[in-house]
Every structure is written in structure tokens, then in C-alpha cells.
Amino acid sequence: MPLFIDNTRSGSADDAITPSPKHLFTTYPNSLSSIDQVDLWPHLSLVVCTLLTVIRTPDHLASNEVVIDCEECGLETIITTFDPTPNMSNSSSQVTVCWLEPLGNDSFHSDIANILSQIKRPDTKVEIVSFDIPNSPIHLEYLCYQALMSSLTIKCARNAGQEGIDTMIIGCFYDPDLETSREISGSTVVVAPCHSTLTVASRLANKFSIIVGRDKWVQQMKERIKVYGMKDLITSFRELGLGVDDFQKFPELTRKRIMEEAQKAVKEDGAEAIILGCTMEFGFFKEVQEKVGVPVIDAVVAPFLDVEHAAHLKKQFNWKPSRVGSCAPPPKEELRKFGIFQSPAPHEVHPG
């Protein structure tokens, strides 16, 4: 809670005294007992200002004042404390994160849930969701597979908004249907792994390489990254020669190949960070990072922590998706008229 000093309330601004920094630091410790008596001290974050001038307190903020008399100079100082975020108490409220596996496959629900349970905040509720459909691919390596799952992904985003879920992750590094899902998700914040990992990596390095399973993936990922405005930050795509369903089936081979390609990316391509370009490459980043010596961004951990933070920002500051201009959703009456998005996608929920 900020603390402001005003020593001119009892006189004019021209009478304000500007003590030396030494005087400030010798005065404040003597004042702590006064603050403690009114039960404010536990909530204060003391900001020492060397210019004691009038600082206007906005009328809409609740305030408390403590008058401190300085025996050394006779200066009467008024300390005003206020909370600049009236809804700060909501920051500790429970938030809900939905991890959507955009497939009819729940094979890795337990693995994802285990990872998230180790890194989530205590007040975060996690749901792992996949589609409850009879026939489904087990990966989205091909565009036609993505097309089959698109309407279900978008339905899940709309359903998340209607159920009051704070945030949702589309668990595929292609970031399929991210924009369309965001358009119809109501107040639910939607993210996806490619964008989240790029954002994290860009805070840690200027150039990075993405480790992919097959060459097939590269073109679609390049197009995605161009949309995000980060194509110039990518030094290379390094191919493992493995498919999505191979990573966890052959963990030792996967670990070996990631290690090899990550080292080449750093030594030969000049990468300063590594991004694991598939959510199924989970469980390897710590070992690779230790061996290679640069940040290695995991495609499960990064988007989850990104969206969990977004959920708390939403609770604390009401920062939720805009619904005007290019972010406007289709009118509800139009959806009813067309008979679309009137029921949720068939899905299974696994508690995280």
C-alpha cells in the first residue's frame, strides 16, 4: 500500500521544509510505533520521498492519516495511506484454468495434470478437457485433422465463457483456432503454446530456435510466428525426426534427440534460447537446459503460467477480453437465429 508524505497541510506550500535524506531516515524509525498503534504498519510499503510536498489524494480512494511530530525540527508530517486498487482483495480469490486437449484423446490427461499440479498456485483450480467423440485423430500434425476439430474447439471456448471459467489454453503448438476462440469466449482469456512460449523466450533472449518433430510442421509454425511479429527472432527450426505420438512413447530417444538438436542450435545457429515446439515434448526441459546452458522453454509450463497470471490479473484488475471493434463477438440473437453454438461440445473433464 503506497505511503505519501504531506508536511504542508498545516501551512502554505511555501513553508514546506525539505529535509536531507539523512534527516528522513533518522526520523522514520522513530515514527514506526505511531503507525503500529493504528494498525497500519503491517499493510504499508514504505516509500521514502526526499521532497515533502502536497500530493493530492483522489477523492474516490479510501484513506487513513497518521500525524507524526518530528522532535528534531518541529515539523508536523501527515502520512496518508491508501489502496490504489480497491479490489485488491480479489487477488487471492480462486481462479479456474481449463487446459483443452483439442482432440478426442485423453491419454495424457494424467501426465498434464501432474505437471500442472506441481507448478500451479494453491488457489488455482485446473480442469483438463478433451472431446468426447467416437472417432478422432490423436494429434494435429495435419491441417485436415485440425479442420475436423475446429468447431469443437470454438464451442469449448464459448462454453468456458458461459461457465465462468477464467482462462483457457488450447493445448497444441500450432495455436489452432486461437483467434476464433478468443472472439467467442466471453470473459474467458484464451492463450495457446506458440504465442506464450515466444513471449517468454523474447523476455530472456534475442534469438531462439524451435525444436520440432518433423519438417512438416515448420511452414505452418512460420506463418503463425509471422502473425505474432516475431519471425526475425527465430534463428532456426531443428527437426527431431519424430512424430507427436513418438515423444512419450520413446522418451530416451526423444531426450537424446532434443539434446543433440538444442546443442546444434546454440553452437551452429546462434540460438540464445530454445523453445520445445510441441506440448508432447513435456518432461525434458530441465535436463536439456542444464546441459545446453541456455533457457529451454517448455510448451506446457509456459502457457499455463502465462494464463494463470492472466487469470489473476482478470480477478484483480478486471482485465478481461475486449468486446468492441475487431474483438466484437457475434450477436447472441444471431447465434440463436442460426441455431449455432447453442450447446457445448461433447467433452470429458479431468480435474488437474
Keywords:
352 residues, alpha/beta, 5-stranded mixed beta sheet, 4-stranded parallel beta sheet, 12 strands, 36% helix
Describe the structure.
The protein is α/β, with parallel strands linked by helices and 352 residues long. It contains ten helices and twelve strands. The protein has helices spanning 21-37, 109-119, 143-162, 178-184, 193-204, 218-227, 251-269, 285-292, 301-317, 332-338; strands at 3-6, 63-69, 76-82, 95-101, 124-131, 167-170, 189-191, 208-212, 234-239, 273-276, 296-297, 347-351. The strands form three sheets. It has a five-stranded mixed β-sheet, sandwiched between helices. The chain has a four-stranded parallel β-sheet with strand order 9-8-10-11, sandwiched between helices. α3 runs parallel beside α4. The longest helix has 20 residues, at 143-162. The chain is globular and about 55 Å long.
Give the CA-CA distance, first to last residue. Answer: 34 Å
Q: What is the spatial order of strands in the main beta sheet?
A: 7-6-4-5-12
Number of E-type strands: 12
Determine the mean pLDDT: 81
Radius of gyration: 26 Å
Proportion of strand residues: 15-25%
Q: What is the oligomeric state here?
A: single chain
Helix content: 25-40%
SSE sequence, one letter per element: EHEEEHEHEHEHEHEHEHEHHE
**Overall 3D form:** globular
Uncertain runs:
1-63, 81-91
